[in-house]
Structures are given as structure tokens and as C-alpha cells.
Specification:
The protein is an alpha/beta fold and 494 residues long. Helices cover 47% and strands 18% of the residues. It has a 6-stranded parallel beta sheet with strand order 3-2-1-4-5-6, with helices on both faces. A 6-stranded parallel beta sheet has the order 14-13-12-15-16-17, sandwiched between helices. Strands 7-8-11-9-10 form a 5-stranded antiparallel beta sheet.
Length: 494
């Protein structure tokens, strides 16, 4: 049944009709050539004194041109033999080379293409509701799709080109062909039944899409990303329900894990009255004790959820031994978290600045968060145009030891690597770990697949931009039911 839509699509296409005309011309030339050869066959046969019918002439021409050459009809003179060679060579060119190429190029390949196009979906199937519409596909949305699949939420990626839809379908993704700024597209996407529309393209394109969608439906949630702070108000005016500054969120998320300055508990998030926090063991009297021996439940009332050791998370057990590089994940009320900090705030205090490698949007956001916490920092940036006239900025490459020394690397409790190049982040992580074994290294990963590589390189914490963005969008859909503590570790509200 799928043959007929492809058949009609093929002949309805303008390019296909042009190809058909070219095929007709080719076969017309081929038939004219066969006719001419048949006439010359009769002339040369009469010259040799042989008499054959017109049917025999066509028969001889086709057998010679197709290189079959049965040999039952032959010329006996040199002119006839030369003519036979010419017919044979012409047949090889026309029937064995040009005809297959022409049929494949102008008929078979376009027909297969039309058949593939006919299979590309252009609307959401009837009966599908509470689906998520993604207007573009990037690492963040690819990770979001994985989350949606885990929760059984239907989704559809909107693409402009049929070929893109076919490629996504071959990957096992749900895609629909259509223009993101065309109101008719959202009618086919069943916008009135959608749970959410997500657009994470440029600020200007996001504005256009949000404005288009909001004009069609006043209730559907629209989640957009914003690269610039000035775009937030415009996107909200265009109709966005939630505007996410992913670079700002990434910088804050990285900075929240800076715990090398002190031994206090640092808040990661909360579920109602229950708060989730982290605290380092370095410099505290808890190093070398088991969790049972710490008696933290009695001292501060907090519960130990788990422990981190250089990127490896394990559930807390009474016999779990705390090392100098161990980081506790604790849970409790605000008063209990404060009580923990009050007991351990005197330990492991460092006045040295945190080093931030990369002065882009993520690095600057991390610096603002640290400044709000009263933590000193230094930003190392190799691009001169990003270096502000500020004493906290160091111009130079982080791969240069002299630059790191100027930033105070020898005394720094933490180095935060925030560049948008995963290869460079791995390189710098290995370099910093070789220079100092005891420094806390927090690294950013653009792609999920490089998270484990950064951990192996020596990073204590790694956050994936794709996972962080997908989690932020997913939380809008699920109303904050999931808290991303670290890469690969989420806390759920039960």
C-alpha cells in the first residue's frame, strides 16, 4: 500500500516530471538510432547480394547493439564488418552505459527518494495527547528525549527538511516535517493537545516561534532558552512560559560544587522542607572515621545520603570510611544543615581564590555566584577581547604554568574548567591534576559521552551541559520532581 503514495508523489513533483521528459528524449534518440542502423543494414546487405526482411534488420541491429551477437546473420565484406563494429560500439555506449545510468539517475533514484519522502510524517497521529513538541534538535534536546522516553512521554521533533526527518526516523526518533514559524504546522502537531513546546535555538528564532505558538494557544506551556539577559523580557513578552538561561544555570551549578574553601555544608537544592547539601571532609576530624563513628545524626540531625570519591558515588553505609578527598551528601531541614555548618565551619578555611578557566558566559556566571558567596576568584582567559579591566581577570592560557602561577594556582583550593571544548577540558584536567594532586577540579562537559573521560582525567565533579539543560526543561514539565545533584545522579521526590 505504501507504493501508491510514493508513485503519485513521484509524478506530482516538478523535478520528476522533468526527469521523465529526459528519459523520453533518450529513448527517442535510441529508437531513431536503431531505425537508422536497420536501414543501413538493408543497404549494405543489398550491396553484398543478400536479401532480408525489415524484421530481420531490426533483429540484427538489436542483437549486435546488445552484444549478444548470435552470428546467424553476418556481413562478408569489409564495409559490412566495419559497420558491424560501429553498431557494436554504439550499442555498448547506449545500452550498457548510458541506459543504466539514465534509468538510475532520472527514474529509479528519484522514485526511491519520493518513496522515502512519502514515509516522512507530516502530522502527529490521531489519539496522541500530552506530547512534547521540540522545534529543534541539539545535545540538550537529545538528552531531554532520553528523559521523556524513560517517563513514557511522547515527543516529536520538528524539522524543516524531509531528509532530516528520514534520518531521525532511522535513528529511532519521532520527527515531523514542517516550518517552525508556520501556524499550519502546529495544527498538524495537535498543539491543543500538547503538554509543552520547547525551543532552544537562537534568541531571535525562539522569539518568533514563541510568538507564533502563543497566538495559536494561550494555555500551552512554552519553554525557551536565552543566551543574553536582555532577551529574557522579550521572550516573555512573546509568550514564553519559562525562559531558561542555560549558560547562567550551568555556571551556577558548577560554582555550587566549589567546596574546597571550607568544610561547611553547601546547598544543592531542596524538596519542600528537605534540603540536599554537600560538604568536604578535607581538614576535618572526620577523616579516617566510618560514618557510624561520626555520629552526625546525633550532633546535627542530618542524614548522610551518600559519599563522593573522585567522581564515584556510593550509598552511605555505617562502615563506609571517610577519606580526605571524600565529599558527603547530606539531607535535612534548614536548621539541621545550619547546625552541621556551625560545627564544621572552623575547619579547612582557605582565603586563596578559586581559579575559573574560561571567561565565557558560563565562567562569568560562576564568578558572579562565587562573588555572592563571598568567595574570591580569578578568571583565566586566553582571548583578549573577553578579558575585562578587572584585577580578577588573568590574560593567558591555562596550559601555561606561568599563567597559572599568576592566578595563584599553588594555593587555590579549586580550579573550575568551563570552556565549551571538551577536548580542551580533558587536556586541562589532566594538566591540573598532574600539577597538584590535592586540588579540587570541577569540569564542564558539553557532551554526555565525555563525562567519564573527564572523571578518568582526574576531575572531582563533572557536569554535562546537555544533562543540565535537559533536566531544567524536564523539571518544568514535571514541576520540580527531579533534582540533578551531579552528572548521572538525580534525586526524586517520592
Amino acid at each position: 500500500m505504501k507504493f501508491f503514495p510514493a508513485f503519485f508523489t513521484f509524478f506530482a513533483d516538478t523535478a520528476s516530471r522533468r526527469n521523465i521528459r529526459l528519459l523520453v528524449r533518450f529513448f527517442a534518440i535510441l529508437l531513431a538510432l536503431i531505425f537508422v542502423f536497420s536501414v543501413l543494414f538493408h543497404v549494405l546487405m543489398e550491396y553484398e547480394g543478400q536479401h532480408h526482411s525489415w524484421t530481420t534488420g531490426f533483429y540484427w541491429t538489436l542483437t549486435v547493439m546488445s552484444t549478444l551477437g548470435f552470428g546467424d546473420i553476418t556481413f562478408h565484406t569489409d564495409p559490412g564488418r566495419i559497420f558491424t563494429v560501429f553498431v557494436l560500439l554504439s550499442g555498448m555506449v547506449f545500452l550498457l552505459i548510458l541506459m543504466p545510468f539514465t534509468l538510475i539517475e532520472f527514474f529509479y533514484a528519484p522514485f526511491i527518494q519520493a518513496q522515502r519522502r512519502a514515509l516522512a510524517p507530516r502530522e502527529v497521529p490521531a489519539g496522541v495527547t500530552r506530547h512534547v513538541i521540540l522545534t529543534n534538535l541539539n545535545p540538550v534536546n537529545r538528552t531531554l528525549i532520553q528523559r521523556l522516553r524513560e517517563y513514557g512521554v511522547p515527543y516529536f521533533v520538528l524539522v524543516d527538511e524531509v531528509e532530516d526527518a528520514i534520518e531521525l526516523r532511522d535513528e529511532g526518533l519521532s520527527a515531523v516535517v514542517g516550518e517552525a514559524d508556520d501556524p499550519a504546522t502546529y495544527a498538524r502537531l495537535r498543539l491543543e493537545d500538547a503538554a509543552m513546546v520547547v525551543t532552544t535555538d537562537s534568541d531571535t528564532k525562539n522569539t518568533n516561534i514563541a510568538f507564533t505558538v502563543r497566538a495559536l494557544n494561550e494555555k500551552v506551556p512554552i519553554v525557551t532558552s536565552a543566551s543574553n539577559a536582555d532577551s529574557v523580557d522579550i521572550l516573555e513578552l512573546a509568550g514564553s512560559s519559562e525562559v531558561l538561561r542555560l549558560d547562567e544555570m550551568m555556571g551556577q551549578a558548577l560554582a555550587r560544587h566549589v567546596i574546597g574553601c571550607d568544610a561547611e555544608a553547601h546547598l544543592l537544592g531542596s524538596f519542600g522542607e528537605v534540603q540536599i547539601a554537600e560538604a568536604t571532609m578535607r581538614g576535618t576530624p572526620l577523616v579516617g572515621k566510618t560514618i557510624a563513628e561520626t555520629r552526625l545524626r546525633e550532633i546535627a540531625g542530618v542524614s548522610i545520603v551518600g559519599v563522593w570519591n573522585r567522581g564515584d558515588f556510593s550509598v552511605a553505609r555505617p562502615d563506609t570510611l571517610l577519606r580526605a578527598d571524600t565529599i558527603l551528601m547530606i539531607a535535612g531541614s534548614g536548621e539541621e544543615i545550619a547546625a552541621y555548618s556551625l560545627n564544621f565551619c572552623i575547619y579547612h578555611v582557605s582565603a586563596a581564590p578559586v581559579i575559573i578557566v574560561g571567561g565565557g558566559r558560563v565562567g562569568r556566571a560562576a564568578a558572579r555566584y562565587l562573588e555572592g558567596r563571598g568567595v574570591q576568584y580569578r578568571i583565566v582567559e586566553r582571548l583578549e577581547e573577553r578579558v575585562l579591566d578587572h584585577p580578577n581577570y588573568i590574560h593567558g592560557s591555562a596550559a601555561d604554568r606561568e599563567t597559572l602561577d599568576r592566578a595563584g594556582f599553588a594555593e587555590a583550593p579549586t580550579v573550575m574548567i568551563t570552556t565549551h571544548e571538551d577536548d580542551l577540558n580533558v587536556y586541562l584536567t589532566i594538566y591540573c591534576r598532574r600539577l597538584r594532586e590535592d586540588i579540587e577540579i570541577i569540569a564542564r562537559s558539553v557532551l554526555n559521552r565525555n563525562v567519564s573521560t573527564l572523571h578518568r582525567a582526574g576531575a572531582d565533579f563533572v557536569l554535562s551541559y546537555a544533562s543540565m539543560g535537559a533536566n531544567a526543561i524536564f523539571n518544568v514539565l514535571k514541576r520540580g520532581e527531579v533534582l540533578m545533584v551531579a552528572e548521572g545522579l538525580n534525586v526524586f521526590a517520592m
